[in-house]
Design brief:
heterodimer; A: elongated; B: 185 residues; alpha+beta
Chain lengths: 155, 185
């Protein structure tokens, strides 16, 4: 996206990128409220290192879901671009125009994107491993009514 | 050797010219002044500041109709906020700053209005194209200096800035706001 040649389409793509990011940020807040009032089901029996890895990765994904939209918003503002959500709702500028800050935020947002992609990949691979190789209820436990009961009566 | 001498004479004359320009009545103090163009990109305002410009405004509060103003703006000094966009707008489709490094304005008629206002009209030339613009200017005096402030709208199309493919994402109208400070003589 960043290496697209300058064109009207590039501006449109960037706007949608920002609007989707802002939407993710808003959904994260809803999700955080839900999570605080509805604890996740207990983890399935598995080696302790897997529990720790899962908890760390979940925490990391939440942190990145906050960091990525916020660093993008800041980067947009620092390079002199206000965000007008869906072209309708002007969002506040969090920082003023600042070329040096914009450069730093660009790096942060770009590196964050790569790191988040890797984390999502690991998360998906681990989930598929539990579902297809271990054949446990890790994925099914997200749908409480579809569990086979393994999480309460481990084999 | 001779060529070198000529070059030095040229430079000396150039420096002299700048010095005279600085000392002349009504020279704009660029470090206290600003010229900012605001354009709408997908409903979001983007500010673009011209960092280098020079000119003069000769103004006498007692004879505002005799005001004369001239301004020259360095198009290569445009700062939109990021390197990619700054490089883009210098290209031929936009300002073509390599061929048209200066934009100029010169007042040809000044009409005084009430309370320190006057309307200045004259030719504005950008990218080699000239349009007559009329600008309402507010004058504020402080500490012996005069600050001239105002804004006007121009059409990108009229000056051939940007090809039509951008119409959907960039408004044609661009608002230029200026704040020009001239030390009292």
């Amino acid at each position: 996206m960043t290496n697209m040649a300058s064109s009207p389409l590039k501006l449109v793509v960037f706007d949608w990128h920002k609007w989707i990011g802002v939407t993710v940020l808003a959904l994260l807040l809803v999700r955080a409220l839900w999570r605080l009032t509805h604890p996740a089901p207990p983890l399935l029996p598995m080696p302790v290192w897997q529990h720790r890895a899962a908890q760390f990765l979940h925490g990391f994904l939440y942190a990145m879901l906050l960091l990525q939209p916020v660093s993008g918003w800041l980067y947009s503002n620092a390079s002199g671009r206000a965000i007008v959500y869906l072209g309708l709702v002007p969002l506040p500028n969090l920082v003023g125009k600042d070329r040096v800050l914009a450069g730093t935020l660009r790096e942060l947002h770009s590196t964050g994107g790569s790191v988040l992609s890797i984390a999502i990949g690991l998360h998906v691979l681990a989930a598929l491993k539990h579902h297809l190789i271990d054949r446990d209820d890790t994925l099914r436990r997200m749908l409480r009514w579809r569990t086979t009961g393994q999480e309460r009566e481990p084999i | 050797m001779k060529a070198r001498n000529h070059r030095w004479i040229g430079r000396a004359l150039c420096c002299l010219g700048i010095a005279v320009g600085l000392a002349a009545d009504g020279a704009i103090n660029a470090s206290q002044s600003s010229i900012v163009a605001t354009f709408m990109q997908q409903h979001a305002p983007v500010e673009a500041a011209f960092k280098k410009f020079s000119g003069s405004i000769v103004y006498d509060a007692a004879k505002p109709a005799a005001t004369t103003a001239s301004l020259s703006v360095d198009m290569n000094s445009l700062d939109i906020g990021d390197d990619d966009t700054d490089a883009e707008v210098r290209k031929p489709a936009w300002f073509d700053s390599a061929h048209f490094p200066q934009a100029t304005f010169r007042s040809t008629a000044v009409t005084p209005g009430p309370g320190g206002h006057f309307a200045a009209s004259g030719p504005l030339t950008i990218k080699g194209k000239t349009q007559t613009v009329t600008v309402t200017v507010t004058v504020q005096q402080s500490g012996g200096a005069n600050a001239f402030e105002g804004s006007f709208e121009l059409s990108r199309k009229a000056f051939g800035i940007g090809d039509p493919s951008w119409e959907g994402v960039l408004d044609d109208a661009v608002r230029v706001h200026f704040h020009l400070v001239v030390a009292g003589s």
